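Protocol step 4 of 6: structure prediction from sequence.
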Amino acid sequence: MAGEKSVAVEKAEATDKQLRRALNFWDIAYLVVGAMIGSGWLFGSLYAAAMVGPGAILSWTIAGVLMLFIALAFAELAGMIPKSGAIVRYPQYSHGSLASFMLAWAYLLSSITVAPAEAEAVVTYMASYVHGLLTPTGVLTAFGLFVAFLFTVFFFLLNYFGVHVMGKTNTGVGWWKLLVPLITIVLLLALYLHPSNFTTPSLLPYGVAPMFFALPTTGIVFAYLGFRQGLEYGGEAKNPQRDVPLGTVIGFLIVVAIYVLLQTAFIGGVDWSKLVLNVSTGSSWKLVPVKPGQWGNLTSALVNTAGYPSLSHGPFYEILRMSAIPILVGWGIFLLIDAIVSPSGTGWIYEGTATRTFYGMAADGHLPDWFLWLNRYKIPWVSLVASLVVGALFLIPYPAWVYIASFISSTTVYTYMIAGPALLVLRRTAPQAPRPFRLPAAWVIGALAFIAAFLIVYWSTFAVLWGVVALILAGLPLFFMYTLPSRYGFKRSVGAAMGIAYWVVLGITTYVFLYQDVVQAASTMISNNVRIHQVLMATVPYFIYWLVINMAVTIAAVYVASTMLPEEGKQHIRAGWWIVITTFAGLVLSFLGPFGPYASASYAIIPFPWDTVAAAVVALGLFFWAAYSGIYTKDLEVVLRDMGVIK
């Protein structure tokens, strides 16, 4: 069976060589810029300001620093082994099949949902001038969903005709995507700045904690995820070992600066005198002015102009329009155009990312070989079709941008935890490999990258994270059903039986114990003003039941499967235990922290900032476990031999 697996790995390497190498340094940089400047700049500033207040500027800065550590770790890996579908392939080289599968599955969940999210962003802004696309609550109507689907089809077609067409189109659009936000920043800061906003009522009116929790929940991290695009297209660059790491880092730094300035311009551009709320009086509704400093009301505020448009439907456009300054109002027209161009540019890039994620999973042996099939334009066409179909389905359960952005942020950053450990493992297992981009203080940067990723996932809030963890665990049966039989000769019938049993246990316990008896019960009891100790007594036991049952079943299933594998399979399982425990650890800490299920009662079992300190300490321990558990895999051996590093 090991021999069959090596054949599969070598087949993936052979397919890699057929990919068209058409991207230069600027193409890579603009892939990063184009992916990062999308719907995040159109909506992120509003939601961040509503949660944090003026201190949202600090949230963007902190997120930029944390994500930079992750980007730097990946940059060294990309320079060493530039591969298409890179992020799902590095875990296979450093930790083997179990870690690779769980991270690839999570990354697949995130990457296939970005293009639909960008389509939703386009349609949301279009609602400013096209009626019937949104409900009053900001959710897409059936017509809006249909228009969003048409945009995803457009993203698909642009990718289908080759990386050369997509890459060159994106580089041209990249200039537009840079100039529009930059000009918006200059105009607002120069002509419509309200300096008192930065201290109204204070920099952090809701405290320090929201400054961190805003990172994954308001679109900030979502906006920064795009740095990975340079890595994902690494196998299609002309000079990948130089251009991929440099293009990734430079593109990332440019966009971080733009986002910080955009948040500054938005905070300064809010004119409180022109915002109102539609408040119910019982039998009727009346318009009430928004008081200065009521940042939390921004997402439901209406602009006091003709038609009373909602600020949340087009934040920057409405600020420009409310100014009544001719040049700003005129520039708002360009913003409406950009509201189609910027998210679309990000959408077609991520359509390609999802395609390369399917491709990378097939290269790792987690999916059938036909996901490696290339069309006449050297694009993995089966993977591309899968990304369109599966991604479009996510429009149904997530019919609004802010809903899907939090899910994407959590699942993506979960996969970024591999950057630090893989950096250290490959330093040990492949010291002779060329590293044109070599980081100093690798242990420090690797640890910081892991801690940063873990904290961002932790800050996602329990309301988001319980579903994310359940979906990640729901992929594990596919590991038993397909990966183990195809790579190690595991009996497919046994894998199917284990997988189905696992789904049944996970599904029942998650719905009954986690959703009904914890999430729903806590929310209902708190809204009915039940005392917090009674809420805890009624809900904590059910979280413990869910945790104990699912940890036991997961560990038992993986262990039993490992006993039936050849030695190489056993090594891969041993090297991947850390990611299993990490998955549960994040959810446990989230349950205990201030944004757990009792957040609406302002109660935390471990209060801020000690919750974040505890999470960082746990993350450091998990990082060392991951770094020391890495192994020299045959997949890495094939790659190094193909590169000419070993004979």
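Step 5 (inspection) to follow. Strands lie at 275-280, 285-289, 302-303.
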